[in-house]
Amino acid sequence: MLRAFALLVPTLVLVACSGESPGPLEGTWAVTEPFPVTVTFRHGEVESMGATKKVTYATERDAVLVTYKEGANKGSTFRYALIDADTIRSASGTFHRVER
Fold this sequence. Notes:
It contains one helix and nine strands, in the order αβββββββββ. By secondary structure, the protein is of the alpha+beta class. Mean pLDDT is 86; it is low at 1-16.
């Protein structure tokens, strides 16, 4: 019984923190290295390089996980670590907020 409860609590926390809201990522961000890219995180979607894709968002401590629901990245999850209100870091580089 205790073991089942120990597995249930983290699952409920993750589900409670996931959805279509980008939370602190909402807005437009830009990175220049290794190549220039601008990304806009909106309710239920991400826009980058002229393409808009449906996504879900999940919060995990100091990061937001973005999971693609369609396109070439379908099923892939990308982690964006929150450095401060205007800076995020991912495997693609360090992004700075362009607008909210």
